[in-house]
Amino acid sequence: MKIQIVQDVIDLLRNKKGFSIVNHAQKPSNFEDRLKTLIKNCIPYYYTDFKIEQLYQRQIPDFNEYVYTEQSLIKNIKNYKFAIKELKRRYNINQLKWTYDNLADGYSREIFLWVIVHKILGCGKVRFPLAYSESFDKLDYLNKLKIDNEELQGAFSIFNKFNLNKIGYDVKLFTDKIGIIVAYLLEQYAYKNIVKAQEGDYVIDGGSCYGDISLYFADKVKKNGKVFAFEFVKDNLESFNKNLQLNPQYKNNIVIVKKAISGESNQKLYVEGIGPASKIINTAKDGADEVFSITLDDFVKENQIEKIDFIKLDIEGCELEALKGAAKILKQFKPKLAISIYHKDEDLWQIPQYIKSIVPEYDLYIKQLTVVGWETVLYAKCS
User: Fold this and answer.
1) pLDDT tens column, 320-330
2) Which positions fall inside the Methyltransferase FkbM domain (predicted)?
3) Is the pTM of this model over 0.70?
């Protein structure tokens, strides 16, 4: 069953819409010219055959409005000059070129171009994988992995209980189908066979939320590995613990750390937002929970951890500061990295530049996981 599901996902990634535009266009060798050519080729397209909230199975009534308006992810820019003006307003082309030139393979460079074009034109013009209604029609048989009718209310959706044994994971958890597809089938925090968690690895899971990724890592590192799961939001931890209770085989592998990863330890910070969108802020708001920060360097030192093999960070825009607080780890252990770079425009160059400045031997890769430009991940491994 796993082979069939994975093959269906691969078939979707080969869909002739969206991404194929670049394959039919003449490819200029100059980075800026290539970027502008892609934008020009995408301008005539405008897709209206899908709804974001339907694909993501969101249960909150204002999710569609949030995506379409506040996030401005659905656009219909018809003027090429306006699009180029927007590109130059938001980005330093030379900095983007630095990232492009420092990516280690052609696939990453191609995806990087599409990520930029998507940020300018939106998903009405640029179709990432899983942006099509048939995506979920074909994958409806994930319902067969449901254990029973028990449900869990998440921040943005209702989770069902799944057993992932039939797709190759010794994991039971409350999640939704998009969570299974992105985290387990497309392996959000692995890049091909190059950057991946392996048996015996010690993993930092920064931004563990409901524990689905921590369980993915626990399955990969097996009994001799460790997963240090950083999560501090009360509601998230409640769901995390329910998922952990479903997987007693990993009780000695997963260590929950209720602190915020930052560039400085012992800061009093405050929690804003809900669910996977929770983040830390410096100023207290009414009713905001408090949390104290810790650097990864201090965490490893204080707990006398002998090695770190893999660092994953998806912490709502604090990734760069977290990496600055892990400089000693990067230099000493040179761990594999999977870092989210979609929260801020400047993440596209500031994070890869910082990583290379600390450990020049890192090779860099990029993968894009979702419909709307979220979940762009930068991977790094020393060559």
Assistant:
1) 999 999 999 99
2) 207-346
3) yes
